[in-house]
Amino acid sequence: MELILFLAGAYFIGNFLTAHILMKLFRKRSINSQGSGNPGARNIGRLYGKKAFLITFLGDALKGSLVILVGRMLEFTEIELLFGLILAVIGHIKPIFFRFKGGKGVSTFIGGIITFEPLLAIVIVSGFFIIYPFTKSFTISGLGAFCLIPLTVSYLYQSMELMWTLVVLIIIIILAHSENLIKKFRHT
Questions:
Q1: Is the pLDDT of residue 3 over 90?
Q2: CA geometry: angle 133, 152, 113, nearest 5 deg
Q3: What is the pTM of this model?
Q4: In angstroms, rounded to a whole number, what is the distance separating the alpha carbons of residues 55 and 64?
Q5: What is the C-alpha to C-alpha distance for residues 150 and 10, in angstroms, rounded to an integer?
Q6: Which of 165, 132, 172, 129 is nearest to 149 (CA)?
Q7: What parts of the sequence cross the membrane (predicted)?
Q8: Which of 9, 19, 95, 81 is closest to 54 using CA atoms?
Q9: Number of other CB atoms surrounding residue 50 within 10 Å
Q10: pLDDT in tens, 98-136
Q11: How far apart, in whole angstroms, are the C-alpha atoms of residue 17 and residue 95?
Q12: Of 10, 15, 45, 87, whose CA is between 20 and 30 Å from 96?
């Protein structure tokens, strides 16, 4: 029962979209009708600057981090923690509170995965800087760097279960970006 409550709570934590909260508090408007319409850090950053980007990124990352920290306090296994993170990311991408129209889940994923294993910050940053010169795309470089995470976790934890759980999580994030990726590949 405790695990079910944790997983349900993780999904609902994912539903709190920082960009929506900021827009309602300071602009009295919906982020969905501005820029790309995406309630994420990149869109709000393009519209309102670096400070808005940073606040949104940190707010959304905090959700993933919170799920992992609560799961650890409740002494759940690593697999259960990652299932909680999957549901937080899904909650961000498909929030019931916003008619299933959410962000891409990247900030929530980053906050959660770095809380899960801090060494992964090095993998993400290194992977991004290795891939970026070839792609010249933040999106493709970031997603490419994320693909290194399952292998790294498999090596660190000696667990194929964790690796495949992370593969599922990264596929969810890639699918959330599928429309943007299709546009990018059509342009090249």
A1: yes
A2: 85
A3: 0.92
A4: 15
A5: 21
A6: 165
A7: 6-26, 52-73, 79-97, 109-132, 164-182
A8: 19
A9: 8
A10: 889 899 999 999 999 999 999 999 999 999 999 999 999
A11: 9
A12: 45
